[in-house]
Amino acid sequence: MNGLELRSLATSGGELRLSLESVTVEEPGPDEVVVRVEAAPINPSDLALLLGPADLSTMRADGTPEQPVLVADIPERRLAAIRGRLDQSLPVGNEGAGTVVKAGSNVQDLLNKKVSMAGGAMYTQFRKLPARDCIVLPDGASAAEGASMFVNPMTALAFIETMKAEGHTALIHTAAASNLGQMLNKICLADGIPLINIVRSDEQAAILRDIGAKYIVDSTSPNFMAELTDAIAETNATLAFDAIGGGKLAGRILQAMEAAASRNMKTYNRYGSDVFKQVYIYGGLDTGPTEFNRAFGFSWSLSGFLLTPFLKNASPEVVARMRQRVVDELKTTFASHYTATISLADALNPEIVKVYERKKTGEKYLIDPTL
Amino acid sequence: MNGLELRSLATSGGELRLSLESVTVEEPGPDEVVVRVEAAPINPSDLALLLGPADLSTMRADGTPEQPVLVADIPERRLAAIRGRLDQSLPVGNEGAGTVVKAGSNVQDLLNKKVSMAGGAMYTQFRKLPARDCIVLPDGASAAEGASMFVNPMTALAFIETMKAEGHTALIHTAAASNLGQMLNKICLADGIPLINIVRSDEQAAILRDIGAKYIVDSTSPNFMAELTDAIAETNATLAFDAIGGGKLAGRILQAMEAAASRNMKTYNRYGSDVFKQVYIYGGLDTGPTEFNRAFGFSWSLSGFLLTPFLKNASPEVVARMRQRVVDELKTTFASHYTATISLADALNPEIVKVYERKKTGEKYLIDPTL
User: pLDDT of A253-312, one tens digit each?
Assistant: First the structure.
């Protein structure tokens, strides 16, 4: 059984090459299935692997109409950061959904079922994987509806689980009007968890107001620090998840948390408050350096956060609870909206790449490998 | 009973005023003692409270020979950071040692004993405090020998306890030739714990070589990153304690840890290694902003570290074990060397302040309030 698979290759000569390769899909083992992929989203987390650090102003089409290739230059100074992937043809796509077309002897019940999948290499026509990495979609759900069941929903729920496990009772989220941010608002509203949304424009604030968000702070406001501090003082939010990464925002959040904590201090302590303040960086919308003044005492932590290690360290009960909630609320809390559906070949078209790589708030693209 | 006490006052008008105030020491309660302070070190951690963010180029003597006062300007832009202490006359001095001159009914056995103390306000002639905050010095130990039993020894031991509690097996330390750094080397050599010392000069490297340090890396070396990465690869150090705080060093340590971890990776992972990397900032020798490129995956944490909350969270067994070791090794591992001993009045002399505030490696000043 053969199918086309999208591959990303960064060469040590400084070229990014995206291509469609014909790959052979082996027969599934006893506990495996082969899924015809019908929908796979382009998440911000996919773009880093897909496009690497290429200079997209140099994108050009190569190859033939039957075998399109996209080429772009990678500036030499950026090659060191991706040394580990150079000259390897890598499959792409964190998550997707489709129909089981072959099933191993132990998992025959899955045949012809629509399933959601996680595990990478989803920008492909046929994906072989262990049956346990699939979730059967609820009746009536389409592949498109099930395509984004993993990355954003599980990350949003992981924020909540982390909050509880680490003893916090409220949250701050940046780039808060994102698809993930909207899900997080729905969860927090349903669960009665105070959530402070940090956005960068009126337009983003409006998106969140429309879905009922209570705390919205615009980081471009001249009163941002005062507004953020007030919201923290009201909610006692001592935990933040930051998708921006670069710049001064993470440090400003810690500073506002400390300012809110200081309001309750009766005596001066030059080491700052003893309120523990945690910011997790889980994305890199700003790829520049992170910078902060340590104007928030010594009781703080700034850390990386990633779904995969979280799930690896979480108890099976926690993971099962998260998965079940995603299934139960697939068409409500965790519904994704797509700007457009494109084919595998479209994903290699420079004009289309320019559109989907913008990561514009509210925009999300879906690849359908059957097109 | 009256005595002189050093006080630091930062006014909202932008002045720092150091003075000696005559204070009345009340009779001790049943579980309290009054100690005649005979030795109290000037630690880097004392200087922030003592001198605040004053511009020391403006220091001038005021008051009278009997009641000296030191005055310096605090630039207006720095006042916001110390809002919590403005217009309060604050006592100074984290630790000290002396002789018990009065003891409450329940602790009469301490009378005339030499004790070490922690708890602040040690730059004073007589200090009343709970007996449980004193440690009786071993026979033959002088007040000077017992004056620095708390801050540096307990911090060094807290690093080791943290390492064990968080599952690391080796350490990195910056500003490594400091008094604290030398103690840490002695502990690690005795306990067989690999310790990577980061220094900033040949002179500092020599100090550490002389006491038997094995891993010494100079951050001013053109090959610093390669040398640090090699040392990490050899020791598996995934934990660092950083006294510098500002600048790029903390981030470079995380980057070198990641580079060492990547040597063992067989397949490319764009999210970086899954080796967890922790850097604690426990000082601020560089008070400027902290800056880093997040070139070390998502499995990392950069946090504040302070002895007091560590001790509050540690079990009583751990704290007792730490204290006992300090007593047992007071004249060896935890011996402090002082550059000079000064009086309380000397501590207010602009010429002498200029010398002790330099925080020069290997230099440490002791106040003897009986002089």
Answer: 999 999 999 887 777 777 888 899 999 999 988 989 999 999 899 999 999 999 989 998
Instruction: Check CB contact of B299 with chain A, cutoff 8 Å.
Output: yes
pLDDT range class, residue A113, cuts 50, 70, 90: very high
Closest CA to B325 of B76, B143, B150, B110: B150
Cα–Cα distance for residue pair B236/A327, rounded to 1 Å:
42
How far is the first Cα of chain B from the last one, in angstroms, to the nearest whole number? Answer: 18
Measured between beta carbons, the chain A residues lying within 8 angstroms of B306 are 271, 298-299
pLDDT tens-digit readout, B221-250: 999 999 999 999 999 999 999 999 999 999
Cβ proximity of B146 and B97 under 8 Å: yes
Q: Are the beta carbons of B301 and A301 separated by less than 8 Å?
A: yes
Q: Which of A298, A310, A311 to mutate to test the interface with B (most CBs of B within 10 A)?
A: A298
Cβ contact, residue pair B292, A290, below 8 Å: yes
What are the chain A neighbours of B245 within 8 Å (beta carbons)? Answer: 294
DSSP string, A97-134: EEEEEEE-GGGGGGTT-EEEEESS--SBSEEEEEGGGE
Tokens representing A53 are 């650090």
Could you say which of B81, B294, B299 has the minimum Cβ distance to residue A295?
Answer: B81
- Half-sphere exposure (Cβ direction) of A325: Cα atoms closer than 13 Å: 22
Contact B298 A306 (CB under 8 A): yes
Neighbours of A208 (CB within 10 A): 20
Q: Chain A residues with CB inside 8 Å of B79's CB?
A: none
Q: How far is CA B82 from CA A242, A261, B73, in A?
A: 28, 15, 14
What is the C-alpha separation between B122 and B144, in angstroms, rounded?
Answer: 13
pTM (2 decimals)?
Answer: 0.89
Provide the b/e sequence for A287-319 (b: ≥16 CB within 10 Å). Answer: eeebebbbebbbbbbbbbbbbebbbeebeeebb
* Rounded (to 5) percent helix, strand, coil in chain A: 35, 30, 35
